[in-house]
């Protein structure tokens, strides 16, 4: 089992920045990839970014490229999502997720992830 706890959400004005954190515990050695997803009201959950747990490979949704950066600190079993130049359309609940399947790909489908955090609200005002 892997437990994930997100933090760092909040209210920010358009153009501002936030950094989300996702602390993992439990069987962290089983994690291959950590993903970030978000879900806005009335919309489906969508992929934002992913990072290899034991490496540096990353993948971003087009909406995140150039604005968001995901990173990890394995010593702290924590991944981060630095979000810059935020827009009102970035408003959503943000989730981190763990993929424990041995896989070269950094998956962008939520179905591929086994464990999820509780989510943290990000609200961007115009």
List key phrases describing it.
0% helix; four-stranded antiparallel β-sheet; 126 residues; seven-stranded mixed β-sheet; mainly beta
Largest sheet: 7 strands, mixed
Poorly predicted regions are: none
Shape: globular
Helix-residue proportion: under 10%
Architecture overview:
This protein is mostly beta strands and 126 residues long. The protein is built from no helices and eleven strands. It has strands at 2-7, 10-13, 18-26, 33-39, 46-52, 58-60, 68-73, 78-83, 92-99, 115-116, 120-125. β4 (33-39) and β5 (46-52) form a beta hairpin.
Secondary structure elements and pairings:
Layout: E1 2-7, E2 10-13, E3 18-26, E4 33-39, E5 46-52, E6 58-60, E7 68-73, E8 78-83, E9 92-99, E10 115-116, E11 120-125
Parallel strand pairs: 2-11
Antiparallel strand pairs: 1-3, 3-8, 4-5, 4-9, 5-6, 7-8, 9-10, 9-11
In short, what is this structure?
The protein has strands at residues 2-7, 10-13, 18-26, 33-39, 46-52, 58-60, 68-73, 78-83, 92-99, 115-116, 120-125. The protein is mostly beta strands and 126 residues long. The strands form two sheets. Strands 2, 4, 5, 6, 9, 10 and 11 form a seven-stranded mixed sheet that branches.
């Amino acid at each position: 089992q892997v437990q994930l706890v997100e933090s760092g959400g909040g209210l920010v004005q358009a153009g501002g920045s936030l950094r989300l954190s996702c602390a993992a515990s439990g069987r962290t050695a089983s994690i291959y990839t950590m993903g970030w997803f978000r879900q806005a009201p009335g919309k489906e959950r969508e992929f934002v970014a992913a990072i290899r747990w034991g490496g540096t490979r990353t993948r971003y949704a087009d909406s995140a490229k150039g604005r968001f950066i995901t990173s990890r600190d394995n010593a702290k079993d924590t991944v981060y999502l630095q979000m810059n130049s935020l827009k009102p359309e970035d408003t959503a609940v943000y989730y981190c997720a763990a993929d424990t399947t041995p896989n070269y790909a950094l998956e962008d489908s939520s179905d591929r992830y086994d464990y999820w955090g509780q989510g943290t609200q990000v609200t961007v005002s115009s």
